[in-house]
User: Fold YXWGXW repeat-containing protein from Mucilaginibacter pocheonensis.
Amino acid sequence: MKKTTKMLMVLLIVSLAAIKTYAQVSIGISVRLAPPALPTYTQPPCPVDGYLWTPGYWAYNEDGGYYWVPGVWVAPPRPGFLWTPGYWGYDGSIYVYHEGYWGRHIGFYGGVNYGYGYIGSGFVGGRWSGNTFHYNTAVVNVNNTVVHNTYVNKTVINNVTVNNHTSFNGPGGVTAKPRPEEQAAEHEQHVQPTHEQLNHRQVAGKDRSQFATVNNGHPATAAMNKVNGKRFSPEGHTARVQDENGAANHRAAADANNDRTAARQEQADKPTSPRTANDAAEKPHRSNPENAGGDRPHAENGRQQVQSHHNAPGAPRQRQPHAGPTRPHENARPQEHEKRRE
Assistant:
């Protein structure tokens, strides 16, 4: 009797473990409405060497419906791991979301073409060499000032933007089936989305402008350079988002302004020469950090165009004291002539 009980307990534990493994890659939220088409967007450059790209996708909230989770560069949980994106699958009655995961090899992600290396099967945006990740710059965008491990393989290009906008697998969508190597990858050791990735999705779910019911399938923030980093519109410009009160703001521009203000403060703290001090006394609006807020940065395509405070429209122009010799007053001339007559 005891042996039978032990055997049942072992079988139960094995069954639960199998269910957990299956749930990691197959079971998720199910809805009856199809997710919107995938938006086309520009990928921001990789900000940190070793970060991997995780494409944007439509998540679902029971209160607001589908919302766009921006594509973002993230740190993998460990070297050698690649990201298999999640995907929506349709079985003829409901749409089920299959959660993404980290692993040594890329598994099946529904045949959905997310772009930037995720062409529907596998990943062609880069590869691991030991503990170093090498980026295929023919497919992905990197910042060459911080990322130096790159190569170019144009034979794998399937356009850097998404050609097929279908966002789900099944009848009416992509009809791809798992390949043998993708099936094998599903049985390997997996790591669930990192804490940063989960936080990234939660933040997107709190932004009204990301919901399809508000943006009609065109999210304000399509991509980000990193979690809690800069936001980018589908065109690759600084994204306009809404704060908690629903007011529009230019978050990336504000970040740039803060960086510039900090740089001015650091410059102001440095010891100055007597000549520099005199210049600062004559023109306080150029060196006084309290006036740094008067600059209005305009961020476009990753570049800032700054309009100086003293050239700002409507700003009063300061007159500098005349540096030339002082001329005698005209009223003094008649008196001088009278003395000569005497």
Remarks:
- The mean pLDDT is 74.
- The first helix runs from residue 2 to 25.
